[in-house]
Every structure is written in C-alpha cells, then in structure tokens.
Amino acid sequence: MKNNKITIIDVRTRDEYRGGHVVGSINIPLQEIQSRVDEIKKLEQPILLCCASGGRSGQATAYLQSLGVDCENAGSWLDVNYRINEN
C-alpha cells in the first residue's frame, strides 16, 4: 500500500478527524458524501475509506461503489495508518 497511488478519505466527523488521522487523508464526513460525489469522482482512484471502526466507511463504500467509484472499505483509520507505515 505504501507505494501505490491511492486516495484516503476519512468519513468521521471533523472533530474526530482533528483528534487524529492518517497523514495525507481527506476528511469528508459521512453525511457529506452524497453531496460531494462529483468532487470524490475527480480524486485519484482507487480510494480507501476509513472511519473509527469500519461501519461508516462501509456505508460510504457501498454507496460510492454503486456509482462506479473504484473504492474499498479500509476499516479503522488506525489500521490504515499502521498498514501505510509498516516496513
């Protein structure tokens, strides 16, 4: 994952994101996903979506995949952070 061109979207609230996040990730809270689809489609794909546990990012992933966006649910932002920084 470290060398791949990907975009990471964190769908937690702005306050949660401010409390800690993956460096370089974009914060688009779950409730804004639907209104920001055009912006999301312009981002580098594939897109990894994360949140606190994987629930909200799972909802966002299902919605975006139904619109043809190349994305996957990466689960917890802490797991994503670990996977990116391992090695």
List the topology elements.
Layout: E1 7-10, H1 14-18, E2 26-27, H2 37-41, E3 47-51, H3 55-66, E4 71-76, H4 77-85
Parallel strand pairs: 1-2, 1-3, 3-4
CATH topology: Oxidized Rhodanese, domain 1
Low-confidence stretches: none
Question: Could you say which overall geometry the principal axes of the C-alpha atoms support?
Answer: globular
SS-based class: alpha/beta
Order of helices and strands: EHEHEHEH
Query: Mean pLDDT score, rounded?
Result: 94
Description:
This protein has 4 helices and 4 strands; from the N terminus they run βαβαβαβα. The protein is an alpha/beta fold and 87 residues long. The protein has one domain (7-85): 3-Layer(aba) Sandwich (Oxidized Rhodanese, domain 1). A 4-stranded parallel beta sheet has the order 2-1-3-4. The radius of gyration is 12 Å and the shape is globular. It starts with 6 loop residues before the first strand and ends with a helix.
